[in-house]
Amino acid sequence: REERSPRASPRGHAVFLQARWRSCGLVGYPNVGKSTLFNAITQTMMASAENYPFCTIDPNVTKVAVADPRLDELARIEQSEKTTYGLIEVRDIAGLIKGAAKGAGMGNAFLSHIRGVSAVLHVVRCFADVNVTHVEDQGSLSPVQEYESVLEELLIADLEVASKRLPALRRKAQSPKDTEATRSLPVFEKGLAALEKGEPVRSVLTDDDRDLVPDIPFITAKPTLVVANVDAESAKDGNELSGQLADYCGQRGQRCTVVSAKLEMEACQLREGDSDAFQREYLMSFGLERGEPALMRILRECMDLMDIHYYYTSGQDESRAWFIPKGAKAPEAAAAIHTDFDKKLEKVECWRYEDVMKYGGLAECRKRGRVS
Fold it and tell me: Where are the alpha helices (DSSP H) in the chain?
């Protein structure tokens, strides 16, 4: 049972668990580095990263292992035959431009792709490069304006959804028998009020609101991380452009992180088999602490955005991480293993990871009464 998801070690035979109920989507302008970041996160070259707008048409989709050294250590102590990591689905969605909500570019298709994800990674260009086409003015990069332009398209799309859904919902809510409409209407009204002020719906939703309407249809209600994509030399501390974006996001309570997609993709190409020594050394040469790839940091952010928690099971056959929603009770958590457990769970035995490490295994913990 643990809370965090750090880094991988391809130990022996690894089988990856698919988190079918969670996915992150990379969105933003064309040519801001979404596909490059996707390649870095997934450590593949499956996404086209060409230097022209709309080089990505259909979303690239892959499952990314949330690797965990503690799970590896647990498998080593229990001498497990295989290690099973959890997966997060990552989607590289083609670029939005001004007018996308009205169908400009390939707006309608792209907006539908964004609606299909659980959380959004909004990539913003914070690097100057005359060799990389910019859809607007190459000479006056403004990450804040770029972020607002994409957000504006999403707000317009949400307002259209609200205009279609709310009239019918208001009529249904007049009937006391329609408890679902009665429960949902205040949340939709709150979302509409935010949209009319030019604010994303997520800025006003509470946890209770999300519990009442877990599938609220607004794109701007989705948990979002703004990713400032900088040049390699600015990977450690960011630059002036990323600083402007970070200040803007900070004033609005919006999470923001800095990454150099190009540097990370170059680094992932240096990995040799199971060894990441060259990769780490290369990243450390740019001042990145411990040489940790952005893959791990971004995946941790994704898990947090989507309220993903996990626990371990371990034995001689397999050590495995099971993804569950944060706050899940024992039956719901056990249902990740088998759906029958949701109603038929009778008993759970729990070990603290620290105790297993301290005493050298589950059997020794049991002898010492370290089981709850």
Answer: 34-42, 69-78, 107-115, 143-173, 179-196, 207-212, 240-251, 261-268, 277-284, 294-305, 330-334, 341-344, 353-359, 362-367
